Every structure is written in C-alpha cells, then in structure tokens.
C-alpha cells in the first residue's frame, strides 16, 4: 500500500541514524558500567542514562523528521504526491513511533545484557526493581516528540527544533506547577 511505502521511505531516509543510535546507546551504557564500580551506583546511573538516551533520541528523531524535509524542500515535493497531507503526516508519525519503540527496547535489552554479563546479583536485582519505571516515562517521551514535531514545522533546523521543544515542554511543565 501507499502508506507502507511512505513509512519505508522514512526508514530509508533515516537509515544512518537508525544504525548509529543503537550503537551509540550501547557504547554509552558500556561506559556507565566501566565508570561506576559499585553495584547500586551502576544500576542508578544506568537507569538515568537510559531515560536520558530515550529522551535524547526522541527529540532527535522527532525534530529531524520534519525539519530536514522542510530545509531541503522535500516537504513541498512530497506535497505534490497523489496522497493527502494527513497520510504523509501519519506515515512520518508511525515511522517515528516504530523507531522509538524499537530503540527503547534495544536500550533496555542492552542494559539488561550488560547487567547479566558484567554486573552482579545486587546490581541486577536493583535494576530489575526499577526498570518498570521506564514505562512511566513513555508519556513524557510522547510529549517531547510531539513538541519536537511542532517545533520542527516552525524552523528548518533539527537542533533548533529540539531546543525549542525542550523550552516548550519545560515551560508547560513549569506552568503546571502550583503557585505557592
């Protein structure tokens, strides 16, 4: 179908980041295990690193999704295709969701493998106790990605869009805090 072809096209366009992101994530998690020698410290640091990696990749992929096409003129070229704008947008969002879910699963899998391979019983038990909290962060990642998509439609730079998204989400979070 046309929709599947559009999603595949997005994956083809992002093939380098789709290969680099898991490799970079694995190296960063490996460094965490090399730097933090104590079992509880390595588990805590690995969990924090996993959250940061997931947030960073969410911002990167979401911001790059539209900003690159906007800057290169591909967005206006794709608008000439005999499909609706909603279909083009949906294909990009579905690609983003699939990429981020796969990347999150990879990050958790790599960390679990590292815990089993180079950790000990204490670090593994602590990691398994807290890994369920990763799911709690999924809505936060969705909000970050949505903000990055919105910002990437406004500016032609993925980096600027990611930074604007952080400012936007930070402002929304700050506005939601009760005034004392």
Main features:
single chain, 180 residues, mainly alpha, 9 helices
Structure report:
86% of the residues lie in helices and 0% in strands. The chain has helices at residues 2-13, 15-35, 39-72, 74-78, 85-118, 121-130, 133-136, 138-152, 158-176. The N and C termini lie far apart (55 Å). The chain is built from 9 helices and no strands. It has 180 residues and is mainly α.
Number of helices: 9
Which series of helices and strands comes N to C?
HHHHHHHHH
Q: Percentage of helical residues?
A: over 70%
Distance between the termini: 55 Å
Identify the overall geometry: globular
Global Rg: 18 Å
Kindly state the number of beta strands: 0
Question: In this structure, how is the largest beta sheet organized?
Answer: none
Classification by helices and strands: mainly alpha
Q: Average pLDDT, to the nearest integer?
A: 88
- Strand % is under 5%
Low-confidence stretches: none
């Amino acid at each position: 179908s046309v929709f599947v072809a559009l999603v595949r096209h997005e994956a083809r366009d992002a093939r380098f980041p789709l290969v680099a992101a898991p490799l970079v994530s694995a190296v960063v998690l490996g460094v965490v295990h090399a730097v933090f020698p104590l079992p509880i410290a390595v588990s805590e640091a690995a969990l924090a690193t996993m959250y940061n990696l997931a947030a960073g990749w969410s911002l990167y992929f979401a911001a790059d999704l539209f900003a690159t096409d906007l800057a290169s003129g591909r967005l206006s070229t794709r608008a000439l295709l005999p499909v609706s704008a909603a279909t083009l947008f949906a294909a990009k969002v579905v690609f983003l969701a699939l990429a981020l879910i796969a990347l999150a699963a990879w990050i958790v899998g790599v960390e679990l493998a590292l815990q089993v391979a180079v950790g000990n019983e204490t670090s593994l038990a602590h990691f398994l106790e807290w890994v369920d909290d990763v799911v709690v962060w999924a809505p936060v990642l969705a909000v970050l990605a949505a903000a990055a998509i919105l910002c990437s439609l406004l500016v032609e730079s993925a980096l600027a869009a990611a930074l604007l998204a952080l400012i936007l989400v930070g402002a929304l979070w700050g506005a939601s805090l009760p005034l004392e």
